[in-house]
Design brief:
Layout (H helix, E strand, L loop, with lengths): L29 E4 L13 E4 L2 E8 L13 H18 L7 E8 L2 H6 L1 H11 L6 E6 L10 E9 L13
Parallel strand pairs: 4-5
Antiparallel strand pairs: 1-2, 3-6, 4-6
Helix pairs in contact: 1-3
Length: 170
C-alpha cells in the first residue's frame, strides 16, 4: 500500500482486516494501519490514523486517588494504572475506544511477560477489546519508589457532527 492509499474508516488498511484479533469496530474517524502481507499483530495495532480532539495523558502509575501505590504486584498496579487511564479519559469526555496510542514503561521485562494472562484479563476488563498502537519499553527504574509500570496514553475523540437546522421562512 502506498502512503497515498487510504483504508476505509474503521478498517485496518490494506485489505480491510481488523487491527488485531478480536478488535472491535473503531470510531468512524479512526483507521488502523495494516499493510497487505504483514503478519496480524496480537494485542496491538501497527499504526492508527485518527481525526478529532486530541487527549494526551501523562504517564500514569498504579496509585489510587489519594496518591498511594496499590499493593499486590505488577498486575494489581497495571489494573490501577489502567483504571486511572479510564477515569481521566472520562474526565475528557472520551472512552478507551478513543485511545490511539499507549506506551507502557516496565521495570522488569520478565515480570511483564510472565504476567501476560492476568494482564490480558485486566486490560480487557478496563479497556475492552480495543488494541491501539502500543509500545512496551523496559526502563531502569520509575520515579515513584515501588512503581512497576507506567502507562502513557494518547486518545483522539472524533469531531461531533453538527446538526443543520433549517428554519422555514415565515
Amino acid at each position: 500500500m502506498s502512503p497515498t492509499d487510504r483504508a476505509a474508516p474503521g478498517t485496518s488498511g490494506g485489505r480491510g482486516r481488523p487491527a488485531a484479533e478480536g478488535a472491535p469496530a473503531s470510531p468512524a474517524s479512526t483507521t488502523f494501519l495494516h499493510p497487505a502481507g504483514w503478519a496480524r499483530p496480537k494485542g496491538y495495532a501497527y499504526g492508527v490514523v485518527a481525526e478529532g480532539r486530541m487527549v494526551v495523558l501523562s504517564g500514569l502509575i498504579g496509585w489510587d486517588a489519594r496518591g498511594r501505590l496499590v499493593a499486590g504486584g505488577f498486575v494489581a498496579q497495571a489494573r490501577q494504572a489502567l483504571t486511572n487511564v479510564a477515569t481521566l479519559l472520562a474526565e475528557a469526555r472520551a472512552t478507551p475506544a478513543h485511545v490511539v496510542r499507549m506506551t507502557w514503561y516496565v521495570v522488569d521485562k520478565r515480570e511483564y511477560l510472565d504476567a501476560q494472562e492476568g494482564l490480558g484479563r485486566v486490560y480487557r476488563d478496563i479497556i475492552g477489546r480495543h488494541y491501539p498502537s502500543m509500545t512496551v519499553v523496559q526502563v531502569a527504574d520509575l520515579l515513584e519508589p515501588g512503581a512497576r509500570v507506567e502507562i502513557e496514553v494518547t486518545a483522539v475523540v472524533p469531531p461531533r457532527r453538527r446538526r443543520t437546522r433549517v428554519i422555514a421562512p415565515p
